[in-house]
């Protein structure tokens, strides 16, 4: 249940959320050819970064900075359209911080820590007491006030938010080895033999890429790190391991601050960094009771909302009936004599007559031609699917034409479609 109502909320109003949103997201392949990973569409209406930003807003934080770097135009445009309602006269701020060579004429952001260091002057002008460093590329709902409360109560140098992951999967994460009091005694980056949690043999604590610092303390650490020629200037590789060895680093369990509605059985956190994980997290939303409750009005996910007409379903005859079963269909979509099953259609998609679309994640402004049969696909924005195209029924053929994952999901882009016409 939502655990925020019984808490006082003073700390969040004097804190700043600093979102690291410059990641390439290379494991998403063609989906990040033109956009940074935080700008990738998710869930029908949102971009991935909207979840971290909404958590900050809903937690009471009114000062937010977003550091951008890799292919940032789509992300910056989204932030300008959807997140510029913060007002200075209300003691609020929202700063988009592209890599701009503020410190050196020949260096962009060298690492995650450097992405904060280069903007120290801007942060000092806001003068927050605490800074929460956030990754801009995960899907979750979290009350950062609970995290701040723990950080202050335990007088930590840094508090690292952690999620419990099965021990068998933990080697893919940065793992926190803690004592019985949640003090971090070792930090292991993608260990072959990850240590389990105290008292639990089946799970490990993995870093969520969320860190809380007292602002002055962080600035001192960043300046020291910037002067070290051997550092990679990265939180996960340099700052956090150093504080584990020489400071007071504490772990915060995501289960304590996860915001859940009555319909969410387990704390929900997803790294949608691969095509399979991205497809699964979107398709999961079509379940009868999804693991993530996107209908929870007590903790809304904010975004830029386009003015679109309602979705439309037309034609009602055998073999040509506009219908959708266990599917999410956004505004501006037209399902014209086609059948959708367990699929998610973003804004402005048109699916034409006699087509069958199953287990598909279809990004905005896609047009699916007549008689197409598409199964287990992710279709990039603006793609024109030719008439009669069949995907998801012949693995060998799919692998030759599209980017097919080990789990059988095909990523389809317009460039791949255009190559079909040349063969």
UniProtKB/TrEMBL annotation:
Give the matching InterPro entries. Answer: ADP-Glc_PPase, ADP_Glu_pyroP_CS, GlgC_bac, GlmU/GlgC-like_hexapep, NTP_transferase_dom, Nucleotide-diphossugar_trans, Trimer_LpxA-like_sf
Which positions does the site annotation Could play a key role in the communication between the regulatory and the substrate sites cover?
69, 108
EC number(s) per UniProt?
2.7.7.27
Q: Which UniProt keywords apply?
A: ATP-binding, Carbohydrate metabolism, Glycogen biosynthesis, Glycogen metabolism, Nucleotide-binding, Nucleotidyltransferase, Transferase
Q: Which reaction does it catalyse?
A: alpha-D-glucose 1-phosphate + ATP + H(+) = ADP-alpha-D-glucose + diphosphate
Entry superkingdom? Bacteria
> Can the keyword Protein biosynthesis be found in this entry's annotation?
no
The Nucleotidyl transferase domain covers which part of the protein? 18-286
Which residues are recorded as binding alpha-D-glucose 1-phosphate? 109, 174, 189-190, 207
Pfam families annotated for this entry? Answer: Hexapep_GlmU (PF24894), NTP_transferase (PF00483)
Instruction: Tell me the ranges covered by the Glucose-1-phosphate adenylyltransferase/Bifunctional protein GlmU-like C-terminal hexapeptide domain, including all copies.
Output: 309-412
Q: What processes does the entry annotate via GO biological process terms?
A: glycogen biosynthetic process
Question: What assembly does the database describe for this protein?
Answer: Homotetramer.
Q: Which family does it belong to?
A: Belongs to the bacterial/plant glucose-1-phosphate adenylyltransferase family.
Name the job this protein performs. Involved in the biosynthesis of ADP-glucose, a building block required for the elongation reactions to produce glycogen. Catalyzes the reaction between ATP and alpha-D-glucose 1-phosphate (G1P) to produce pyrophosphate and ADP-Glc.
Designated name of the protein: Glucose-1-phosphate adenylyltransferase
Organism expressing this protein natively: Acidiphilium rubrum
**Gene encoding this polypeptide?**
glgC
């Amino acid at each position: 249940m939502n655990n925020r109502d019984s808490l006082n909320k003073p700390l969040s109003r004097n804190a700043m959320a600093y979102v690291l949103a410059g990641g390439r997201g290379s494991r998403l392949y063609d989906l990040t050819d033109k956009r940074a990973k935080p700008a990738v569409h998710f869930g029908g209406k949102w971009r991935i970064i909207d979840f971290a930003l909404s958590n900050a807003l809903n937690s009471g934080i009114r000062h937010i900075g977003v550091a951008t770097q890799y292919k940032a135009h789509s992300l910056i445009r989204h932030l300008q359209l959807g997140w510029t309602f913060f007002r200075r006269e209300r003691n609020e701020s929202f700063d988009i911080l592209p890599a701009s060579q503020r410190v050196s004429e020949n260096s962009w952001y060298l690492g995650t820590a450097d992405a904060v260091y280069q903007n120290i002057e801007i942060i000092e002008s806001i003068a927050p007491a605490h800074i929460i460093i956030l990754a801009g590329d995960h899907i979750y709902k979290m009350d950062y006030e609970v995290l701040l409360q723990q950080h202050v109560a335990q007088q930590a140098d840094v508090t690292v938010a952690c999620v419990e992951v099965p021990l068998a999967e933990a080697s893919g994460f940065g793992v926190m080895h803690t004592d019985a009091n949640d003090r971090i005694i070792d930090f292991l980056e993608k260990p072959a033999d990850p240590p389990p949690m105290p008292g639990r043999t089946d799970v490990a604590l993995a870093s969520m890429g969320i860190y809380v610092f007292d602002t002055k303390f962080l600035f001192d650490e960043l300046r020291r790190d910037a002067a070290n020629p051997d550092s990679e200037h990265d939180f996960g590789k340099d700052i956090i391991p150093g504080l584990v060895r020489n400071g007071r680093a504490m772990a915060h369990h995501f289960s304590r601050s996860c915001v859940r509605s009555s319909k969410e059985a387990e704390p929900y956190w997803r790294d949608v960094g691969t095509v399979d994980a991205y497809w699964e997290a979107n398709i999961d939303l079509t379940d009868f009771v999804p693991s993530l409750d996107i209908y929870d009005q007590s903790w809304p996910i904010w975004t830029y909302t386009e003015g679109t007409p309602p979705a439309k379903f037309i034609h009602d005859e055998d073999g040509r009936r506009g219908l959708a079963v266990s599917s999410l269909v956004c505004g501006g979509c037209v399902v014209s004599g086609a059948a959708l099953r367990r699929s998610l259609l973003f804004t402005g998609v048109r699916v034409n007559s006699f087509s069958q679309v199953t287990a598909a994640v279809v990004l905005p402004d896609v047009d699916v031609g007549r008689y197409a049969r598409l199964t287990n696909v992710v279709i990039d924005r603006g793609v024109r699917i030719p008439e009669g195209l069949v995907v998801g029924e012949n693995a060998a053929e799919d692998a030759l034409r599209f980017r097919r994952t080990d789990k059988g999901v095909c990523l389809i882009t317009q460039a791949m479609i255009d190559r079909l016409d040349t063969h």
